Amino acid sequence: MTSPRDKLKDVWIYLANGLFFKAKSFGAEKTSVGELVFNTSLTGYQEITTDPSYAGQFVCFTMPELGIVGANKQDMESRGIFAKGILCHHYNSKFSNFRAEESLGEFLKKFNAMGICAIPTRLLTRTLREEGAMMMIASTEISDKNELKKLLESSPKIEEINYIKEVSTQAPYQHHKGKFDFQSMDYTTPKTYQKILAIDFGIKQSILNQLVSAGFSVEVIPHDFEAQSLIARYAQGEFDGIFLSNGPGDPQVLHTEIAEIKKLIAAKIPLFAICLGHQLLSLAHGYPTHKLKFGHHGGNHPVKNLLTQEIEITAQNHNYSVPESIQEVAEVTHRNLFDNTIEGVRYKNALICSFQHHPEAGPGPLESTTLFNTFAKLLQNAKA
Question: Which has the closest alpha carbon to 248: 197, 200, 314, 283?
Fold first, then answer.
């Protein structure tokens, strides 16, 4: 059961294409501007909501029912919610999962994120598919369409904002947790055999857990790293490779980070990257990324592994893609079977692998989690 709609406060939504809606609010009460994208995942709304890659965005869920499993501390993918808010067709305020500690609405309010329901999410999804991802404004305070339009038009677009400083860690730390064990209902602490530095552009806890489970001791460092310091540490044998994480926004605005990554490449340090890190590696090699019409967001994207000829169902969350011309310096290892965009590459003259999709599956299918073990074996072979 859900709370009757008349118990929820009204919220008004205006999209950049002129669409205007009145809906209901179950999260923070405020006025907020962000880019609207849709996500096709059937489960894992808490992991999606706390994924830092959604910073600056509203997430419209195609799954019509949200809130049934509530929210809990264990399923956090980061320290909070960086998305502007979420939209769903039907919100359930009463949760029934034994792990739940609070309702989804309470969870959103705690982190000052908006929750919007009683809105035609199928219409929104079709609109985004036809017209592309677009900016929107939502408000529990302003009901006038023209005022909302003016506020939206005067707000910066997501491509103009650097969210990395907001989502990245401010200080280095060690991560020891592995994958979740449903027998103990807690995270494991596996033995580790190699060390990797994870550069945090908005990293997910599930990625860190998978790295540890693959045998890596993980040190997470901030986005504003100095390459020369890392190169010196690598020369001293302090670590075996570097991981470039996922993160939000347009990769082309990260000029400083790209310049530092170029130095890591020149130093021949083994690199492994996912999502934003994958795009940053492309830019650092001189191959500009481009924005997709409405991006890839969900847990049902088929990807073909060109090395094994196997089809993997993957989790995705990105708006940008690397160009076909990257094949001048890298072998394409994975392709998206929805639109044939590049999903994975292995660079030809260095130990560098990168992937566009999310093999950590938080949430999502587990078919690509072997990529973490593959990189661990590549490092072991290189040392041997």
Answer: 200
Q: Which residues pair with 241 in a beta bridge?
A: 196
> pLDDT per residue over 251-289, tens digit each?
999 999 999 999 999 999 999 999 999 999 999 999 999
Burial class (CB in 10 A: 0-12, 13-18, 19+), 160: exposed
Sole residue written with tokens 């310091």: 229
The secondary structure element, H or E, covering residue 107 is: helix 104-110
Give strand ranges (E) for 46-168. 57-61, 65-66, 85-87, 90-91, 114-117, 134-139
Strands 134-139 and 31-39: antiparallel
Give phi and psi for 360, each to the nearest 5.
-75, -20
Sequential DSSP letters for 159-228: GG---HHHHS-SS-EEE---SEETTTTEE------EEEEEE-SS--HHHHHHHHHTTEEEEEE-SS--HH
DSSP state of 319: E
Q: In this predicted structure, what is the pLDDT of residue 3? A: 45
pTM: 0.96
Q: Which residues participate in catalysis according to the annotation?
A: 275, 358, 360
Under DSSP, is residue 150 helix (H, G, I), strand (E, B) or coil? helix
The string of pLDDT tens digits covering residues 96-123 is 999 999 999 999 999 999 999 999 999 9
pLDDT grade, residue 2 (50/70/90)? Answer: very low
Mean pLDDT confidence for 182-200: 96
Q: How far apart are CA 251 and CA 305, in angstroms?
A: 25
Distances (CA, A) of 68 to 94, 102, 103, 154: 7, 11, 8, 37
Q: Please give the Cα distance from 283 to 27 (Å, whole number).
A: 37
Residue located via tokens 């011309």: 325
Under 8 Å between Cβ of 275 and 315 = no
50 touches 71 (CB < 8 A):
no
Residues 274, 200: Cα–Cα separation, whole Å: 11
